[in-house]
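Students often ask why inverse folding is considered easier than folding. One informal answer: many sequences map to the same fold, so there is more than one right answer. In these notes we will look at a single instance of the problem. The structure comes first.
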């Protein structure tokens, strides 16, 4: 069987390795469009901060890794896919045949269409080359404007601040990380960042960029014109304004796409034998009841494993999409779980300690915690996640929590632990989570993550849906 994997980022690499592990005799080709070692996007902020060097971003450290696994690597630009002839055609005229095809081409930066956006000194951070350019211009005391305070923006903010630059963040929404937290938590996050010396302008858009003269280190000097009438001088402007799947080459292939490549729970596209995974794939999320592009590393790995297993004739399904639950911004840890914006007819409670940067919001439907947000409450993350994910019936504890949400740890102990809360599902997911964190820190290989992801997928497939824990009272 001939497997062709397009895209040599996290999803492509994990899928190719997974295929090799389970199909030792199959032929595998991994096709990338950036020559050089495969690297992890999620480690680019650490490269920008100076925490690691370029080799620290590589997905695999041994230069002969793919050779040893008999995974053939090729680089080049694809012109189109002929799905009837089972061929991928390259711009240089070469064609590669396949029996099973995986598209794992990720996404590119979405750049706002404003005058001057393509000036030198304006960069996204979605490739190694972008990160190199940012590092070259973000010298100590340089003036840097970061556009976008979503999840990627928050991660990049910390990385840029570590370079001792003067940093201003422009966010068009009325709050930071608006797709992860409500006004109370986001307001606290904003105050925290400002207390660390970062200027944050919310409800503000960048309207135009002009180049005026030479900036620091011979770089350009830019002026960002803002919707609030201000002009900010900058040696560097970084855009963290979203991403769009790399699917342009699929035109005419017959593969159905909307925003991303539409896949079913086995990661198969509308064309049998062709799969998609990672930031280019759009998949149904049973929890939210919507089609989504996950855009986070754990999903890319889960989906890659799932696609790989199906490509070699095993059966695996991916019904849920993992969201980013925990975010660290300038040292402040925020978290959001489940339906954090609440459900119609539900009840909620909010408590905050403004001075110590602590915040908790709980959202209920009947006696079940359906969503939660926390700021500065690291120890409670696991509890909140378990209560939300496993729809624990809280019984009388719901009213106690509505009176005082600070009793969340007691409620957890009473409702979960007493009922043997560490069931196999929670245990698997905890191992997966901590291994994923290790991988992000460079302490666990993606092979380990892939192996555990596979175990989690296959265990979950064998088990019935998680039961509701009972109420002890
Ligand atoms: C700055 C930043 C920080 C992030 N931080 C986190 C984080 O902390 N936690 C988290 O969970 N997620 C994070 N993410 C998201 C995470 O990195 C992505 O979800 C993950 O990389 C997706 O993997 P992927 O393989 O689908 O795509 P990618 O990693 O983008 O890989 C796609 C690969 O395909 C190649 N390619 C594209 N088009 C073609 C083509 N036509 N032919 C051949 N090859 C092609 C690309 O060059 C690339 O190498 C971050 C992302 C960014 C940008």
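Output (designed amino acids):
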């Amino acid at each position: 069987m001939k497997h062709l994997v397009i895209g040599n980022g996290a999803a492509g690499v994990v899928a190719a390795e997974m295929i090799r592990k389970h199909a030792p005799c199959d032929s595998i080709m991994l096709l990338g469009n950036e020559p050089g070692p495969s690297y992890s996007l999620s480690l680019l902020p650490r490269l920008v901060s100076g925490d690691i060097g370029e080799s620290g971003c590589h997905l695999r450290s041994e230069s002969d890794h793919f050779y040893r696994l008999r995974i053939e690597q090729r680089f080049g630009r694809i012109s189109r896919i002929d799905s009837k002839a089972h061929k991928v055609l390259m711009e240089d005229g070469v064609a590669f045949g396949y029996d099973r095809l995986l598209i794992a081409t990720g996404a590119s930066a979405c750049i706002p269409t404003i005058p001057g956006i393509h000036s030198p000194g304006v960069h996204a951070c979605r490739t190694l080359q972008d990160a190199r350019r940012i590092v070259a211009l973000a010298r100590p005391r340089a003036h840097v404007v970061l556009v976008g305070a979503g999840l990627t923006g928050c991660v990049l903010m910390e990385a840029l601040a570590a370079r001792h630059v003067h940093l201003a963040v422009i966010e068009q929404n009325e709050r930071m990380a608006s797709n992860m937290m409500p006004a109370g938590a986001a307001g606290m996050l904003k105050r925290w960042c400002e207390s660390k010396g970062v200027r944050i302008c919310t409800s503000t858009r960048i309207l135009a960029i002009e180049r005026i003269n030479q900036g620091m280190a011979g770089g350009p000097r830019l002026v960002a014109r803002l919707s609030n009438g201000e002009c900010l001088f900058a040696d560097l402007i970084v855009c963290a304004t979203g991403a769009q799947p790399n699917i342009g080459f699929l035109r005419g292939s017959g593969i159905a796409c909307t925003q991303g490549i539409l896949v079913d729970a086995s990661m198969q596209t509308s064309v049998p034998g062709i799969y998609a995974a990672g930031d280019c794939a759009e998949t149904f999320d049973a929890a939210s009841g919507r089609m989504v592009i996950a855009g986070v590393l754990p999903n890319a790995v889960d989906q890659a494993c799932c696609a790989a297993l199906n490509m070699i004739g095993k059966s695996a399904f991916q019904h849920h999409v993992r969201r980013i639950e925990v975010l660290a911004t300038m040292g402040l840890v925020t978290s959001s779980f489940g339906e954090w914006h609440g459900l119609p007819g539900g009840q909620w409670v909010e408590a905050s300690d403004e001075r110590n940067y602590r915040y908790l919001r709980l959202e209920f439907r009947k006696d079940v915690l359906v969503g939660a947000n926390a700021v500065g409450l690291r120890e409670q993350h696991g509890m909140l996640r378990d209560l939300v994910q496993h729809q624990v019936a809280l019984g009388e504890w719901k009213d106690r929590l509505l009176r005082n949400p600070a009793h969340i740890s007691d409620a957890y102990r009473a409702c979960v632990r007493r009922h043997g809360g560490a069931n196999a599902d929670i245990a698997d997911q905890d191992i997966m989570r901590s291994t994923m964190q290790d991988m992000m820190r460079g302490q666990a290989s993606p092979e380990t993550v892939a192996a555990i992801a596979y175990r989690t997928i296959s265990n979950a497939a064998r088990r019935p849906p998680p039961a509701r824990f009972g109420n002890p009272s």
